[in-house]
Amino acid sequence: MFADLHLHTNFSDGTFSPEELVEHAARFGFAALALTDHDSVEGCARMTVACDAAGIEFIPGTELTAELGDTELHLLGYFLDTHNEKLLTEISKFQIVRQNRIHEMVAAINKLGVPLTAETVFALANCKSPGRPHVARALVKAGLVANLDEAFERFLKKGRPAWVPKAKMSALEGMELIHQAGGLAVMAHPGLNRTDEIIPALVDAGMDGIECFHTKHSTATSERYLQIAEKYNLLVTGGSDCHGFSKGKPLIGTVKLPYEYVEKMKAKVAERKTVESLNR
Ligand code: AMP
Ligand code: ZN
Ligand code: FE
Ligand code: FE
């Protein structure tokens, strides 16, 4: 039995609807899936229904962009109460940050003489959590660049003229937000973000786990983070980070997390609930 715990839909910058994502997952025989759209839990309701119909266990989640000092990291939240008021209020603030940033990126692109409109980006994104991939896809669709790579290379990559930094949540607040919504806080793809130095501080602040298995982690990288997980007694997670066709080929199926790791996550959630009820 296997799980994929890092997936995006068209409720953020993926291209699959929840139903399409589950259809793809079912082909690979996954026993469990988690949805981790950027700054959103909106797709979770439809994932629940689609997974139920396919006989797949569903774990509601999200992916937050956070920072600790100058270090950017992505925080995954799992087993969230998707109706938690504070969670919804906070992520809606970051959705507005994302929407404002689209206007800023488009203005910068216009300054270079490229006639993209924010309306076409929002129409294409058709979600509350738009991001750079939507700008890139709108540029391709309008025939203003040849492909997504050109869009990022010319305009959107860090340091390029239309790159706009994104206001981020503090990692400690992000973890607290996830915890108060009943969830587990996990550091996403540590192999991509050069975040090793901050792991001890995050562990001290209550981080629950680390994403050891990811499409972009080599076997050696996964091995390294498994050792780190062991050292700090962290949960181990993994997922494909599939964005549908947003970045070429769908990645679902490239990472198959053994289900025993999901069981350990569930045990920690259950343990925390027990402690909370005893403290009440
Ligand atoms: P944002 O959250 O708006 O900053 O956008 C981040 C998303 O853009 C992530 O899903 C990245 O994987 C994607 N992305 C970043 N750089 C590139 C690139 N060079 N080509 C394609 N996608 C990228
Ligand atoms: Zn993404
Ligand atoms: Fe990420
Ligand atoms: Fe992701």
Overview of the molecule:
It contains 11 helices and 9 strands. It has helices at residues 18-28, 44-54, 85-111, 118-125, 132-141, 148-156, 171-180, 190-193, 199-204, 219-232, 259-279, and strands at residues 2-4, 32-35, 57-68, 71-78, 169-170, 184-187, 209-214, 235-239, 257-258. Helix 1 packs parallel to helix 2 (44-54), helix 4 packs across helix 5 and helix 5 (132-141) crosses helix 6. The model has no long low-confidence stretch (mean pLDDT 96). Bound molecules: adenosine monophosphate (AMP), zinc ion and fe (iii) ion (2 copies). Zinc ion (ZN) is lined by residues 8, 13, 38, 243.
Radius of gyration: 19 Å
> What is the string of helix and strand elements?
EHEHEEHHHHEHEHHEHEEH
Distance between the termini: 36 Å
Mean pLDDT: 96
Relative strand content: 15-25%
The percent range for helix content is: 40-55%
Uncertain parts: none
| Total helical elements | 11
Instruction: Identify the overall geometry.
Output: globular
Largest sheet: 9 strands, mixed
List cofactors, ions and other ligands. adenosine monophosphate, zinc ion, fe (iii) ion
Q: How many beta strands in the DSSP annotation?
A: 9
